[in-house]
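Internal tracking record. Fields below are filled automatically when a chain is submitted to the structure queue. Please do not edit lines marked as system-generated. If the sequence contains nonstandard residues, flag them in the REMARKS field before resubmitting.
Queue: standard
Priority: normal
Entity type: single polypeptide chain
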Amino acid sequence: MKVRFSVLMPVYNREKYVRQAIDSVLSQTFTDHELLVVDDGSTDGSAEVLKSYGTRIRLIQQRNQGPEVARNAALALAQGEYVVLLDSDDFLFPYALATYDQIIRTFNSPPVLIGSLIDYRDGQPIPAEALVSCPGPVEVLKFQDYLSKTIPLTNFHSTLVIWKSVLDQVGGFRKSTPQTFHNEDLNTMLMVGTYGPCIVVQKPHTVAYRLHEENSIRNVKAIADGMLLLARSERLGQYPGGSERRSDRYAVIGGRASTWALRYCWRGGQRKLALQLLFGTAPMVFAAVWKKSLRYLRKPAQPIALPEE
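SYSTEM-GENERATED OUTPUT FOLLOWS
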């Protein structure tokens, strides 16, 4: 039976956080959704936590193959018109799906939405947005597609909402491994980057990104290696858009590569790694710098306020 949203959640050793992630989906004010949870071979108590939800979630169990393979397993069973991605250490605010539904209806089923996240440091008080059911005004930006964006975006997987037919067309997610999945969010956006329009939520926040000691972004070398893998995929012509959109794809990859090289590798003392990343993505870094310079000559994207419901 079709539903509006299929929420896909891979889980690997997240006993401490996964209950809050699941509860945030089950407590949504918009109820036309399903939650597919993939236990990716957890070795802690995650499996027991997941089984305690019974039929309230669709549980898939597999040996450890990494989050992208886990998402593909869930995608194959998903019945939703749209796929909502949520990592098992993050959580949605209660009105997130209602906000996405309002945007979908307003813009006549756009293929790609990017939610608005707020950082939540583990152990701090829960953000106030998690305690209310009415978010207030909704403001968005509209771009021709993701590759046409004129603002920097932090598109972690937990912010992504994608028309399922689009994901099916591009073949779903990569068949990476637990060691090579890093930067999977950017790979996903490059695969769907020519589908439009792309709607970016400005207000309200829809998801909390949890900062904790086990975040995958703390593995600086793995992220750098993942960026070089994206650059290799681009050179091999694996992303849609052809030569006409090459400079846009270059700018997207180069923007993240330069940020990671300078902000995390260089400042973190891994200067050799920073140089390897910059040299390995040099044409893309130049494209990012050029595109950023052009922003000062263009009129900024104007927020669109949606009528309150």
